[in-house]
């Protein structure tokens, strides 16, 4: 068993650790198919050996060549640490700065087997969301962090630690970029090759930025989405007896079962892979499991009648479930589903993110490796069947939305009937959840603010929960009714979060808050640390899926209609602005959510240690981190954002935003263009 001190000592080379291979007791990533040429295979091997001295090259070369050909990537399984991966209390990390210790804690949480989807492949969630590209990088990063001073910054190139560089104490301690590929070469096919060669990496969002907090984050977002979907589509936030059908219980999608129960509805979630199904059931997040469609239909009817909250896992393909629900409707005239969505990893459709209904999971894993083109054809046929069933149920009265996982985008590419007549470049037959539900919330400045108690003590988390609740209750009495409703939802969430066993991995919490709430909560927590009410530093962060953090035309910015939805200035500016306003670390990624080449996104981590300086950093950085996106959404013509940034300028005299002057008379345009 390694110790934290040992994994900070650098790559273990004398002696080499035993090669234990892949652990059969944990889930593993699907085999990748990069289709490298012989010259590219040679380059991949050469690149991997750069991490090691020449005296071990012969041993490593044979081993790495086998990994590359067997798994499609060189993970360096030999160097997977024997130490149990988890978020250890901050004082146990042998570092020279608390900031470096905090980064270590967050990395280890991302790789904790109870958190990570494929821990030995360094994948946190989403099927391919990497923390690092290989285990050599892990060892080098921990060595650098353990020796780092407050006048150095660790620079990360797509999983590779370039080194420690001199910087100011006010600078970030770590700057991360993932997948920053020249745009003309940012295709899915090029990515597979570049990842196999070890030169770039897909960090998803909070996987490669070291800020994932387990599925709790998406539980909260899904709960808010379902509640607001009920308000918009069903005219009520009382969802008792209402049925929500979706798919996916793996990484982030595993949160759907818990979110459904907290929302009060009947959640039915299909999952083809038995491992995550069992995992969510054992965690208590999934109440019941069945592989029998008839029993599934029976339980839906019973729960609807009793108006009981239920999370029911269907072990099978979502396409079979949709088609069964439609057949029941045709047979009985009874529509058994009110709300529908999908959370399969369709940003990664041909490498394990989506399993076609025609194959078992074992057959699919084999075919995607042996005959990728035939597998792609089956995926497209399956998506067309899925959309046909959804369309039929939608015609009967079900409300469906895209959950930002590229479902409609990939369905369109498959030839399914998802087009919207007269729609813009980012619009489909069904809205994305940002366009109809969360977009207005983002435009008000609300987004997924989170924190991690580095002590690992549940008492600290309970204290910060109480602090956040008190702050939001105080603020909510002074805001508009629309903003107050969002505060009310989040107060309800945080009061109930402790009852629902939300913590998986680190002692963390998430809630949606606007700019004023985030700053106030951060300052109150920092003050509590200074007074000893919270026993150790707290890391504040957010999901990249936020007001300002992500430019994604089919998700986060899909409700931006001035033509700039495909521009990435906001996310890049956010990354840069966070860096010089006080963040402890910052990250900028290509990909995340809807997939490689479809999005630019970024995030941050900031350590609150109770000092006056930490409070100043938090205030300055968090104000920018929200105002940037609200100002951009205001300029695009969003009325909510216009009102929100106006109020913020009234509160902050140094803030001055260029406000739009909308065209009020359309005939002026007609006349000018005809003239």
TrEMBL record:
**Residue ranges constituting the Urocanase C-terminal domain according to the UniProt record:** 440-646
Q: Where does the record place the Urocanase N-terminal domain?
A: 85-211
Which BP terms from GO are recorded? L-histidine catabolic process
Query: Where in this protein does the record put region Disordered?
Result: 10-34
Short name of any one Pfam family annotated for the protein: Urocanase_C
InterPro entries, A to Z: Urocanase (IPR055351), Urocanase-like (IPR023637), Urocanase_C (IPR035401), Urocanase_central_sf (IPR038364), Urocanase_CS (IPR023636), Urocanase_N (IPR035400), Urocanase_Rossmann-like (IPR035085), Urocanase_sf (IPR036190)
Pathway field: Amino-acid degradation; L-histidine degradation into L-glutamate; N-formimidoyl-L-glutamate from L-histidine: step 2/3
Q: Which cofactor does it need?
A: NAD(+)
Which chain regions cross the lipid bilayer?
none
Give the EC class as a word: lyase
Q: What is this protein called?
A: Urocanate hydratase
Species assigned in the record: Phoxinus phoxinus
């Amino acid at each position: 068993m390694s110790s934290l001190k040992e994994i900070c000592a650098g790559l273990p080379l004398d002696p080499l650790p035993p090669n234990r291979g892949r652990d059969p007791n944990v889930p593993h990533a699907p085999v990748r198919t990069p289709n490298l040429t012989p010259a590219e295979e040679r380059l991949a091997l050469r690149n991997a050996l750069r991490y090691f001295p020449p005296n071990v090259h012969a041993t490593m070369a044979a081993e790495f060549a086998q990994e590359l050909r067997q798994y499609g990537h060189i993970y360096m399984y030999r160097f997977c640490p024997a130490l149990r991966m988890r978020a250890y209390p901050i004082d146990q990390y042998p570092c020279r700065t608390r900031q470096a210790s905090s980064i270590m804690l967050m990395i280890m949480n991302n790789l904790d087997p109870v958190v990570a989807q494929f821990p030995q492949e360094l994948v946190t969630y989403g099927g391919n969301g990497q923390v690092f590209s290989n285990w050599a990088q892990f060892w080098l990063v921990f060595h650098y962090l353990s020796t780092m001073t407050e006048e150095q910054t660790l620079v990360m190139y797509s999983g590779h630690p370039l080194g420690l560089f001199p910087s100011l104490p006010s600078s970030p301690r770590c700057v991360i970029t993932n997948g920053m590929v020249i745009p003309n070469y940012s295709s899915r096919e090029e990515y597979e090759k570049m990842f196999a060669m070890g030169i770039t990496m897909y960090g998803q969002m909070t996987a490669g930025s070291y800020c994932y907090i387990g599925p709790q984050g998406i539980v909260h977002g899904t709960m808010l989405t379902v509640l607001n979907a009920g308000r918009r589509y069903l005219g009520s936030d009382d969802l008792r007896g209402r049925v929500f059908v979706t798919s996916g219980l793996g990484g982030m999608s595993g949160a759907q079962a818990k979110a459904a129960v907290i929302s009060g509805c009947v959640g039915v979630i299909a999952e083809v892979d038995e491992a995550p199904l069992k995992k969510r059931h054992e965690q208590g997040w999934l109440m019941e499991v069945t592989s029998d469609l008839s029993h599934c239909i029976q339980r839906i009817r019973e729960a609807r009648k009793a108006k009981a909250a239920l999370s029911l896992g269907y072990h099978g393909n979502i396409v079979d479930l949709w088609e069964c629900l439609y057949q029941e409707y045709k047979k009985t005239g009874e529509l058994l589903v009110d709300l529908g969505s999908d959370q399969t990893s369709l940003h990664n459709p041909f490498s394990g993110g989506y399993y076609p209904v025609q194959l078992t999971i074992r057959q699919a894993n084999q075919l995607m490796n042996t005959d990728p083109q035939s597998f792609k054809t089956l995926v497209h046929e399956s998506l067309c069947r899925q959309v046909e069933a959804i369309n039929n149920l939608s015609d009967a009265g079900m409300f469906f939305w895209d959950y930002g996982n590229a479902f409609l985008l990939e369905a369109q590419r498959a030839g399914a009937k998802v087009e919207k007549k007269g729609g813009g470049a980012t619009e489909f037959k069904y809205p994305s959840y940002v366009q109809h539900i969360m977009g207005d919330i983002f435009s008000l400045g609300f987004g997924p603010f989170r924190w991690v108690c580095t002590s690992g003590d549940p008492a600290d988390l309970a204290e910060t929960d109480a602090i956040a609740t008190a702050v939001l209750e105080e603020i909510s009495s002074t805001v508009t009714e629309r903003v107050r409703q969002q505060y009310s939802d989040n107060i309800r969430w945080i009061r109930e979060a402790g009852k629902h066993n939300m913590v998986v991995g680190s002692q963390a919490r998430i809630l949606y808050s606007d700019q004023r709430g985030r700053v106030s909560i951060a300052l109150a927590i920092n003050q509590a640390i200074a007074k000893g009410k919270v026993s150790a530093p707290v890391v504040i962060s957010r999901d990249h899926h936020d007001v300002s953090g992500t430019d994604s035309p089919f998700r986060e910015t899909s409700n931006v209609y001035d033509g700039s939805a495909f521009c990435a200035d906001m996310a890049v500016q956010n990354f840069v602005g966070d860096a010089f306003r006080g963040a402890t670390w910052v990250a900028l990624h290509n990909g995340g959510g809807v997939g490689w080449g479809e999005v630019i996104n970024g995030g941050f981590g900031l350590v609150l240690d109770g000092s006056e300086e930490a409070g100043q950093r938090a205030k300055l950085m968090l104000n920018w981190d929200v105002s940037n996106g609200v100002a951009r959404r205001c300029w695009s013509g969003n009325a909510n954002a216009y009102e929100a940034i106006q109020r913020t300028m009234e509160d902050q005299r140094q803030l001055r935003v260029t406000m739009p002057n909308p065209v009020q008379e359309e005939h002026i345009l007609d006349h000018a263009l005809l003239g």
